[in-house]
Automatic annotation (TrEMBL):
<protein>
    <submittedName>
        <fullName>Amidohydrolase</fullName>
    </submittedName>
</protein>
<dbReference type="InterPro" id="IPR036526">
    <property type="entry name" value="C-N_Hydrolase_sf"/>
</dbReference>
<feature type="domain" description="CN hydrolase">
    <location>
        <begin position="4"/>
        <end position="273"/>
    </location>
</feature>
<dbReference type="Pfam" id="PF00795">
    <property type="entry name" value="CN_hydrolase"/>
</dbReference>
<dbReference type="InterPro" id="IPR050345">
    <property type="entry name" value="Aliph_Amidase/BUP"/>
</dbReference>
<dbReference type="InterPro" id="IPR003010">
    <property type="entry name" value="C-N_Hydrolase"/>
</dbReference>
<keyword id="KW-0378">Hydrolase</keyword>
Length: 308
């Protein structure tokens, strides 16, 4: 048995006025709670250090650079890395990354239990739009402020577990999990910021948004026989509501831990990574059952082509 207690550090809202230092103090408090529960791997949300700034339109995108980090760790986040090293806690969190050569990514990093960064992921499925859209009840300008990730979907053998990262909208795409599944993933970590109402379909509110989130992660876990941890930034940020609903899902697709609030909240569950083996060796033994000769469209076609 390869058992590890895995935690999800759901975070409540972060307002524009909140400093990085204040937010990191909250993250450290969640890490202390996680340590007290025996957590060895802790998952924080997407864009964990700041408000979800892609909801704001700026004519000049450079105005948004204040939300980006040009190094990691940096002065504000170093205390979190120091605490993690002291506690022997591996962790992952998301942030807006500005590279030395001027590229902007929605990024997450993965550390080992000594707080060394062992993996970096840059969000591939960027939702939303590039220009201001007056038809929407709120803006979602990730396509304006970020470039699609350029690192692909990777896994890392970290603390004895094969771990992979994805970010928010990635969780809705089966391709995400299958790319990781084909590398033997055992723990998929996913941070998210999801508005509780669809900006283009008001009738799709909180209940259905939570359902879609669960559905996507439970299916991804089951179909690849892996644990999935999905962690929200939740609550009302600068007047805009984000849903909570952080969950830990086991390799059968069952939810084994769930957040109950929309604030800073720790969820955790003991994960036995040997439980991933059964599904990977039977119904989802990819080597025996996948029929890639019939999957050509997936790799070469983006949009739908209906025959005439
Ligand atoms: N952050 C993020 O990717 N949020 C999206 C909202 C989709 S609506 C444009 C999500 O999939 O949850």
């Amino acid at each position: 048995m390869r058992k590890m207690i895995v935690g999800g550090a759901q975070m409540g809202p972060i307002q524009q006025a909140d400093s990085r230092e204040t937010v990191v103090a909250r993250m450290m408090e969640l890490m202390r709670k996680a340590h007290a529960e025996g957590v060895k791997m802790l998952v924080y949300p997407e864009l964990a250090l700041t408000t979800f700034f892609p909801r704001w339109y700026a004519e000049d995108r450079a105005e948004m650079d204040r939300w980006f980090e040009s190094e990691m760790p940096n002065g504000a986040t170093q205390p979190l890395f120091d605490l993690a090293r002291e506690m022997g806690m591996a962790f992952t969190f998301g942030f807006a990354e500005l590279t030395p050569d001027g590229h902007h990514f929605n990024t997450s990093i993965l550390t080992d239990a000594q707080a060394n960064i062992v993996g970096t992921y840059r969000k591939i499925h960027l939702p939303g739009h590039v220009e201001f859209d007056p038809e929407r009840t709120h803006q979602h300008l990730e396509k304006r402020y970020f470039e699609p990730g350029d690192l692909g979907f990777n896994v890392w053998r970290n603390e004895g577990v094969v771990m992979g990262m994805a970010i928010c909208n990635d969780r809705r795409w089966p391709e995400t999990y299958r790319e990781l599944g084909l590398q033997g993933v055992e723990l998929v970590t996913i941070g998210y910021n999801t508005p509780s109402v669809n900006s283009q379909k008001g009738a799709e509110g909180l209940r259905q948004r939570l359902f879609h989130s669960d559905l996507s992660m439970q299916a991804g876990a089951y179909q690849n026989s892996t644990y999935v941890v999905g962690v929200a930034k939740a609550g009302t940020e600068d007047g805009h509501h984000l849903m909570g609903g952080s969950i830990i899902v086991d390799p059968d697709g069952e939810v084994i831990a769930r957040a109950e609030t929309e604030g800073d909240e720790l969820i955790f569950a003991e994960c036995d990574f040997d439980r991933c083996t059964f599904g990977k060796a039977t119904v989802f033994d990819f080597a025996r059952h996948r029929r890639i000769e019939h999957y050509q469209r997936i790799g070469r076609q983006t949009g739908v082509i209906v025959p005439v």
